[in-house]
């Protein structure tokens, strides 16, 4: 949903949000939508797109047709068609931007899966919708007791009631196939509802439940991340991270999605670096790769005869030695290259330290010692000794 400050100006330029987090439509996350075409008129003779995006609990969204040509806008609560009965949701997007969302999710406008919007939700519909939503925690608690009593190896993560209260969807995670036919009978008999069991992955479960990551912020998957790309341990290797499962795993138990955020930058930087399995042929001996620093552009090599002593080189120096080796020439010893590098670093450090020679506390007033208090203590101490 978008407020007035998120719309476009008369010239077609986006105004941008200046509310600094106090958005009137709720918040700026993946559940809210910036409709930058809200105040633009369609070309003459073109009818508005009749398919609307509707959001339900925990970011679940679907597309519905407005066959009855209802006067709707973003933020309206509507009753939509389901099988069976009806559900209650909130309109999040309308107009031409819905076509882009449908193309992104590979949904065709002529699909039979697209249901229709019945009406705007009345107060009776909203009251019943709120009532069934309040029942979800208690139903979830009793359902988990049933699962543990039946001994099923599954984890019930969330429950979503339909707007009319006749049906509930149970979201669960499981490693293996689960036979929950007996569970469905007991759930339907206990709560007098139609039951649908839906298995979700661990990443989808974390996105639905939300939480705080190791960075101290809300999980990306529950706030703004909409697509889950595969994350492999090679992403951590490229970034020189230790392969510690406890540090690399997120709340879902899988590898963190943020490992892919800076991967492209690392891959671009690594193009300048030589292969780690390349040996350096020098007059002193053969040098083997030990370590690298991608940000500083440094490499550490050690001779085979003395693997304990590491020598630091720049990327350009290592590439020069490899180019000489390709011409069947041996380079000088690595120590000479390292000496040149040390001279350059000393010159840079001298140039950078010229400005800040003085201390930051040079203008602070020194603390005065309280001599009077000390004199009083010494007088009291001497008077006590005299009395003794």
SSE blueprint and pairings:
Blueprint: E1 51-55, E2 61-65, E3 77-81, E4 86-93, H1 97-104, E5 115-120, H2 123-150, E6 155-161, E7 167-173, H3 181-191, E8 194-199, H4 202-209, H5 220-223, H6 233-238, H7 245-248, H8 263-270, E9 280-281, E10 286-293, E11 298-303, E12 311-314, H9 315-326, H10 334-353, H11 371-387
Parallel strand pairs: 2-5, 7-8
Antiparallel strand pairs: 1-2, 1-4, 3-4, 3-5, 6-7, 9-10, 10-11, 11-12
Task: Explain this structure.
The chain is 32% helix and 18% strand. The chain is α+β, with helices and mostly antiparallel strands and 388 residues long. It has four domains: 4-121, no CATH class; 127-200, GMP Synthetase, Chain A, domain 3 (2-Layer Sandwich), CATH 3.30.300; 217-269, no CATH class; 280-351, no CATH class. It has a five-stranded mixed barrel. A hairpin with a 5-residue loop joins strand 1 and strand 2. The chain is elongated and about 85 Å long. The model has no long low-confidence stretch (mean pLDDT 82).
Molecular shape: elongated
Strand order of the largest sheet: 1-2-5-3-4
Task: Give the class from helix and strand content and strand pairing.
Answer: alpha+beta
Number of alpha- plus pi-helical segments: 11
- Radius of gyration using CA atoms only: 34 Å
Number of strands: 12
How many domains, in number, for the residues?
A: 4
The description of the largest β-sheet is: 5 strands, mixed, barrel
Q: Give the mean pLDDT.
A: 82
């Amino acid at each position: 949903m978008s407020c007035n400050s998120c719309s476009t100006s008369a010239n077609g330029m986006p105004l941008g949000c200046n509310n600094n987090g106090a958005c009137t439509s709720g918040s700026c996350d993946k559940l809210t939508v910036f409709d930058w075409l809200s105040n633009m008129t369609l070309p003459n003779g073109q009818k508005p797109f009749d398919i609307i995006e509707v959001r339900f609990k925990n970011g679940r969204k679907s597309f519905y047709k407005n066959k009855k040509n209802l006067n709707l806008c973003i933020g309206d609560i509507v009753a939509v068609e389901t099988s069976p009965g009806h559900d209650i949701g909130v309109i999040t997007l309308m107009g031409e931007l819905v076509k882009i969302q449908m193309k992104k999710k590979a949904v065709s406008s002529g699909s039979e899966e697209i249901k229709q919007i019945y009406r705007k939700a009345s107060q009776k519909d909203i009251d019943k919708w709120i009532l069934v939503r309040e029942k979800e925690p208690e139903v979830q608690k009793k359902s988990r007791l049933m699962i543990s009593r039946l001994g099923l190896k599954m984890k019930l993560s969330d429950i979503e009631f339909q707007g009319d209260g006749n049906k509930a969807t149970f979201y669960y995670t499981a490693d293996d196939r689960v036979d929950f036919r007996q569970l469905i009978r007991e759930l339907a008999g206990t709560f007098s509802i139609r039951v649908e069991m839906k298995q979700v992955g661990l990443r989808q479960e974390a996105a639905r439940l939300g939480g705080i990551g190791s960075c101290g912020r809300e999980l990306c998957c529950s706030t703004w991340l909409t697509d889950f790309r595969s994350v492999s341990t090679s992403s951590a290797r490229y970034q020189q991270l230790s392969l510690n499962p406890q540090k690399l795993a997120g709340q879902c138990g899988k590898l963190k999605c943020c490992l892919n955020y800076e991967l492209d930058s690392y891959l671009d930087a690594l193009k300048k670096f030589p292969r780690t399995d390349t040996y350096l042929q020098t007059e002193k001996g053969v040098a083997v790769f030990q370590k690298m620093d991608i940000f500083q552009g440094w490499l550490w090599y050690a001779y085979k005869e003395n693997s304990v002593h590491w020598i630091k080189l720049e990327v350009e120096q290592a590439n020069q030695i490899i180019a000489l080796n390709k011409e069947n020439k041996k380079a000088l010893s690595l120590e000479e290259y390292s000496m040149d590098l040390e001279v350059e670093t000393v010159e840079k450090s001298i140039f950078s330290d010229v400005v800040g020679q003085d201390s930051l506390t040079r203008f602070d007033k020194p603390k005065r010692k309280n001599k009077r208090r000390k004199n009083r203590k010494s007088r009291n101490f001497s008077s006590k000794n005299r009395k003794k």
